[in-house]
């Protein structure tokens, strides 16, 4: 049976030694050890296959859903998953609940062609990139609203929601400028909350090693046509090594009102993080500390029967204090880094259907502003830092984006064609109007098999860090130009009720890509537009539901396999590159979900990562030379027992206790046990 879903809402650099993120906005006036050993016993004594096959009822975590009719945000007008002539990875709620992870960042660790490099675990801070791009080249959306940070991509995942509030994650691989606008350079990730929330309350409590404590509560209720969702979360830990402790707080409100004229959608969110940043940006100073605050609000309204209008307005403020010394500062250290960024955006998306297909057009305005004591141009008059005593912003910068969109999608017999373009103007550097077109084409060979190809262009503006950060080993470049690319892609998709599979290849020609470079080891790193960087990749995915395949209850409920190979070539050898060529070359992800006995189930996740690039090894207080990243395997496991509205679970990450690092000299956590309980109250 197909489950029909409502349409979703439309949707480190190591050289950055001393930064923080604070937003300066149009709103300037605002001043204001418990190891769960039973887990080991359980997975070492899994019930024999004969007993499992004898079960008559399916496990409660059986992931029997059909993606075909889900509306995904892969075009300017609404489109179903089955119609998209691109690779869109969808992580559904059932898969999220079964995953042995504790944060959205850890969840994305097992997504196709997604590179997650965690500085702070459990969602504290991570750099997320897609298809070999940098962490600044991936656009992040919350219920279709752009929440990316213009200061640096390090802050993109400062979300006001926890993993427990996520209904679905959509990952659009490849450029998406004509869909989402500037900065959707190598991909876009849309996080969707409370999509099918009913009148219920959910309570979650998790406790783990290193004094990990995770508390979640959310409440969804409907009054007539007024649907509301409110969620709160607190998470903390003493840290897995010295100075990796953290404490985070989230609060989120989402309301939807459906009326005869149309549908109103409102979001409000706030998140606060304080964390030890051991070697986050340089191993020379392991006693770093950072505190961030993010406030987010948006309003959307959709109206019209034949001609649909969807205006939107959003605001995001991010404030950051970065301390190079958490305590006992050096005599030469005079002040912390303070930043405040304000982003104000407004957009209008319009579409209609006719005998010729779906036509959409729209516009977006986005104002990006920063106030800082480090980034930007010198101000005539200092401005007091909100919430800090005797601290002042002395630098600032503002820029504006104006974008117009047009797209037409045609579904004719076995053909699906979508063609469109973004017209863009940016106030910085007095750029002229630029156009970024794209086309997606697919042909349905049979009921289950489709062939597709696409050509899309994209761009990304430099972050404020790229432009202005100057430090002991770094020099920013205010004259940077936007990155540009054109990507060619093609492949096959196979999709039926039991098996979903695809294989594709892509080639991206990148121009003016921004990197920290130098001509020799004696020079400082500086940001510069590289002449050309080309990317070639192969991706394949396989998703099997054995019960649907064999038509009966089977102890294995879900099998999923993703593999990607990506190679990057720099067109010029004139410079040493610090980041652009530092990507995952091979990535293999394997997931198995199976029942054990009665209402007990298990979910295994295995990942292999082999990274290009290298880093300067740091030992005994000094750099000892450049070393390459070692490939590694990661194995995670989660056990779940469910009965009606009650669930107990126990999970272990890095089960094999692998010693590894995926970003500079920062060692990642070893084996980590967590136990949790979830209760749903109708």
From TrEMBL:
<dbReference type="Pfam" id="PF00593">
    <property type="entry name" value="TonB_dep_Rec_b-barrel"/>
</dbReference>
<comment type="similarity">
    <text>Belongs to the TonB-dependent receptor family.</text>
</comment>
<dbReference type="InterPro" id="IPR037066">
    <property type="entry name" value="Plug_dom_sf"/>
</dbReference>
<keyword id="KW-1134">Transmembrane beta strand</keyword>
<dbReference type="GO" id="GO:0044718">
    <property type="term" value="P:siderophore transmembrane transport"/>
</dbReference>
<protein>
    <recommendedName>
        <fullName>TonB-dependent receptor</fullName>
    </recommendedName>
</protein>
<feature type="domain" description="TonB-dependent receptor-like beta-barrel">
    <location>
        <begin position="253"/>
        <end position="655"/>
    </location>
</feature>
<keyword id="KW-0798">TonB box</keyword>
<keyword id="KW-0675">Receptor</keyword>
<dbReference type="Pfam" id="PF07715">
    <property type="entry name" value="Plug"/>
</dbReference>
<keyword id="KW-0732">Signal</keyword>
<keyword id="KW-0812">Transmembrane</keyword>
<dbReference type="InterPro" id="IPR039426">
    <property type="entry name" value="TonB-dep_rcpt-like"/>
</dbReference>
<dbReference type="GO" id="GO:0015344">
    <property type="term" value="F:siderophore uptake transmembrane transporter activity"/>
</dbReference>
<dbReference type="GO" id="GO:0009279">
    <property type="term" value="C:cell outer membrane"/>
</dbReference>
<dbReference type="InterPro" id="IPR000531">
    <property type="entry name" value="Beta-barrel_TonB"/>
</dbReference>
<keyword id="KW-0813">Transport</keyword>
<dbReference type="InterPro" id="IPR036942">
    <property type="entry name" value="Beta-barrel_TonB_sf"/>
</dbReference>
<keyword id="KW-0998">Cell outer membrane</keyword>
<keyword id="KW-0472">Membrane</keyword>
<dbReference type="InterPro" id="IPR012910">
    <property type="entry name" value="Plug_dom"/>
</dbReference>
<feature type="domain" description="TonB-dependent receptor plug">
    <location>
        <begin position="83"/>
        <end position="188"/>
    </location>
</feature>
């Amino acid at each position: 049976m197909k489950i029909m879903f409502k349409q979703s809402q439309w949707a480190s650099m190591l050289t950055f030694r001393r930064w923080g993120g604070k937003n300066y906005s149009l709103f300037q006036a605002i001043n204001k050890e418990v190891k769960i050993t039973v887990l080991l016993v359980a997975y070492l004594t899994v019930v024999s296959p004969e007993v499992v096959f004898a079960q008559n009822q399916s496990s409660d975590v059986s992931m029997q859903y059909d993606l075909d009719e889900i509306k995904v945000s892969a075009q300017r007008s609404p489109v179903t998953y089955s119609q998209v002539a691109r690779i869109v990875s969808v992580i559904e709620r059932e898969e999220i609940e079964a995953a042995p992870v504790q944060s959205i960042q850890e969840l994305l660790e097992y997504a196709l062609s997604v590179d997650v490099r965690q500085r702070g675990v459990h969602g504290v801070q991570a750099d997320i990139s897609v298809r070999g791009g940098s962490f600044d080249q991936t656009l992040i959306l919350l219920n279709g609203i752009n929440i990316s940070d213009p200061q640096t991509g390090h802050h993109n995942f400062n979300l006001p929601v926890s993993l427990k509030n996520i209904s679905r994650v959509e990952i659009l691989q490849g450029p998406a400028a004509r869909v989402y606008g500037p900065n959707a350079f190598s991909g876009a990730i849309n996080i969707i909350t409370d999509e099918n929330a009913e009148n219920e309350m959910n309570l979650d409590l998790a406790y783990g090693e290193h004094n990990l404590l995770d508390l979640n509560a959310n409440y969804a209720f409907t009054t007539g046509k007024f649907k509301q969702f409110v969620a709160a979360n607190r998470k903390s830990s003493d840290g897995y090594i010295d100075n990796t402790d953290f404490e985070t707080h989230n609060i989120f409100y989402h309301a939807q009102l459906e009326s005869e004229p149309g549908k109103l959608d409102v979001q409000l969110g706030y998140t606060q993080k304080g964390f030890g940043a051991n070697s986050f940006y340089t191993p020379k100073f392991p006693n770093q500390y950072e505190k961030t605050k993010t406030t987010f609000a948006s309003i959307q309204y959709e109206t019209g029967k034949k001609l649909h209008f969807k205006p939107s307005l959003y605001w995001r403020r991010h404030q950051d204090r970065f301390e190079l010394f958490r305590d006992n500062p050096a005599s030469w250290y005079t002040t912390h880094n303070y930043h405040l960024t304000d982003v104000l955006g407004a957009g209008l998306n319009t579409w209609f259907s006719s005998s010729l297909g779906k036509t959409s057009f729209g516009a977006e305005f986005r104002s990006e502003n920063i106030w800082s004591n480090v980034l930007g141009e010198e101000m005539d008059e200092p401005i007091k830092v909100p919430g800090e005593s005797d601290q002042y912003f002395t630098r600032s910068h503002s820029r504006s984006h104006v974008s117009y969109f047009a797209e037409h999608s045609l579904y004719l017999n076995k053909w699906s064609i979508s063609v469109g373009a973004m017209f863009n103007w940016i106030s910085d550097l007095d750029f002229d109007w630029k156009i970024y077109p794209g086309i997606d084409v697919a042909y349905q060979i049979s009921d289950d098999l489709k062939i597709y190809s696409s050509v899309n262009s994209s761009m990304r503006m430099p972050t404020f860090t790229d432009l202005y950060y100057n430090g002991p080993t770094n020099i920013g470049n205010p004259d940077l130009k936007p990155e540009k690319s054109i990507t060619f892609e093609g492949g096959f998709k196979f999709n039926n009720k039991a098996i979903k599979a695809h294989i594709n290849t892509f080639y991206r020609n990148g121009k003016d890509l921004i990197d920290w470079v130098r001509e020799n080891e004696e020079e400082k790193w500086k940001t510069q537009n590289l002449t050309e960087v080309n990317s070639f990749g192969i991706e394949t995915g396989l998703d099997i539901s054995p019960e649907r395949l064999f038509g009966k209850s089977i102890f294995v409920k879900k099998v999923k396999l993703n593999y990607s190979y990506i190679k990057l070539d720099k067109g010029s050898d004139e410079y040493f590159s610090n980041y652009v060529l530092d990507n995952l070359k091979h990535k293999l992800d394997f997931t198995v979900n199976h029942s054990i006995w009665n209402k007990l189930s298990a979910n295994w996740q295995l990942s292999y990562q082999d990274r290009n690039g290298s880093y300067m090894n740091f030992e005994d207080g000094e750099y000892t030379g450049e070393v390459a990243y070692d490939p590694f395997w990661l194995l995670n496991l989660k056990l779940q027992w469910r009965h009606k509205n009650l669930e107990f679970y126990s999970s272990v990450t890095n089960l094999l206790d692998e010693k590894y690092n995926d970003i500079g000299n920062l060692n990642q956590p070893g084996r980590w046990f967590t136990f949790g309980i979830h209760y749903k109250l109708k």
